[in-house]
Please model this.
Amino acid sequence: DAGRPQSLVTRSLATRTAGALALGADAMALAARGGVAFVAAAPTTGAAAQVQTFAAGATAATASVEIPGTIAADTVALAASSDPSRAAIAYVAASGALHAFAEDATNGLAAAATSLGTIAANLVAFAATPDGTTAYALDAAAGKLKVIALAAASTVTDAAALPATARPTALARIETGGKALLAVASRTDRTLYVLAADDLAASSGLLATIALDRAPEFVGVGPEGVVHVITEAGTALFLQAVDLAPLVAGQPAILAGERAIPGSGFRLVGLLASAGAGVVGGCGGDDVACPEIVWEQACQGCDEADCLTLATIERYRAGAEVLDAGDATLADDLAAGRARIDNRAGRTVLASTRTLQAWLECLEAKGLNGKDGKDGTDGDPGKDGIGLYPDLPKILDIGWRFGERRNLMDFVNDYIAGVGEDTDLSDRIRERVKGGEDVPPLTVYFNREMKGLTRQTLEVRIDAPMVATEGKAAAYVSAGVYFPIDLRLYGELIEIPGPVPTPHTGETAAFAVSFLPRRQFFWVYDGNDQPKPSWPYVLVYYLAAASLRAGTDLPRVSLSVKGDFVYAPEAGAYSEFGVLDGDNLGGMVGEPAPAKRQPPILGGVNPSGNLTQGGLFESWFFLTLRDGQGAGGAGELAALGEAFGAMTPQPGLDRLPTLANFTAPEALATATGVSVAVARRIAAARAERSFTDLADLGDRAGLSARDREKLDGKLLFL
Model:
């Protein structure tokens, strides 16, 4: 791109997206060989010019090799060939030196160049044959086409087939009908000369002299024997196609009318098999600021699909007479310079209402009963499609029942070893899952060992309706919205290889994974290294208590698995047939199979899936409080609500009531009236397992009836 000479612009024809690769120096030439591109550029390091190699889809150069005997001011032309010893051929204009670079499987090109001798200097339009045996170039000043026999000491001859009056400025080599041709353009006399590549030493090698509408700047090779000439008129660009295939059969070449190239700035022009062309890069969008792209749009020309064909002109050449269709042969018309117009070919006609009425009346007048046609023969049976996948990996069971209510304190005790401890619960979780009893709820069971289960693909979150108070009695009611904090739990994923018993479906799972919330979700240390409830836990408790008072939905714990990214490896590697079929249709995973479960899904008693890869598995349960637990007095609930009134990331939890599972023994004794000794017995008992209510506390701490009376109504069981 001349506007950005230090960039190699790439464009995917499949996705229509562009990118720019940094060269680090100004580019001079580009050549392609299979899936590799070579770029000649000024030095990026050292003093010599370089050839940089780019593999398909690369984001940087694979390697760079220096061109011997060059300096930063040199101009280098580049060609590629199929000969492994001449994968890239460089021509240095200032010195006339030729260099060949051999193919290298790792870096694209070998570091050391092989000299191909020295020829005339300051040649332009350097091109090579596909096999790398011959090259062509133009001496624009002398008006000569140079034929270069590439060898250890390359030799040069002038092509006598090019007229002495020609002033060549661009060339292209094309093969059609088993014959190699050279298309040589002259900007000065607006002419395209077509030469036979195997007869360049004599004037008989000149096959055609074609006058162009405008001055040609570039010649490009299209498919099926067509060359395209880009011409200029001021700042406007035009494209003219020339079909050279008839020349091989002794017929004149066919010259199409010129077409304007839409847009401005950098454009990538695609040459089509139909001798048509179109802008692939699109309206200069690659070299303008992104916000300006909308202002760079060009009006669409008649090459677009929404244009109407009025007529089709066949056999047209510049200057040809356009006549109605006739009986003359193609050869006669080409020899006489005649073109034929067909007013029906390719044309879509929309009938008027009057025409439709006349058509119907004509059918009625001639009779509507046509003759029976012959019966057609049966076609060959079609091939089976790819179908669905009944035996993809599945989710067999979960550690909870879909939509069930679970007591919040039981949920807490599932995931903490006791206040004051910071124990790694991974081994304990594994043992519980392996044992099949007392399973921690956030556990998912699979019928194969799975990969790709991460915090990004397996997520746990808690949401709940927001509750407000209204009226003189400050009654708890729904606020009409969900609480604006959606708690996404940050935890650890514990993998448990099978065999593992499932808790609800009576199967043996090959693999399970259990989500372990971080201890900090439930409690943290204060400034005195004493445990205290964390604000997420207090928030969940408050939402559960408030939801019970207001009669709204309870806080919901959702677990989701993004099946698109989770798979069972085959031979240790990814396979598309190992992608998790994760859809939880009807929320039925973990339930007994319905009586009319439809075949052919495989993998378990009632597994996940809809016979396609991926999908989102999702299920949930609700958190509630035991009767009489904590939904506590209105004062306690109000204190909790006040703690979250400001909606700050760390609410003011210092105003909470006395907490049975967190308050220090001395503070517990002062707040309730029990002795310090009794308070310490309470602290020792809760270290093993959090208290669920006053009865649980009294039994496990061995309290007398009098001490229980002192504690009644004074504790909050968070």
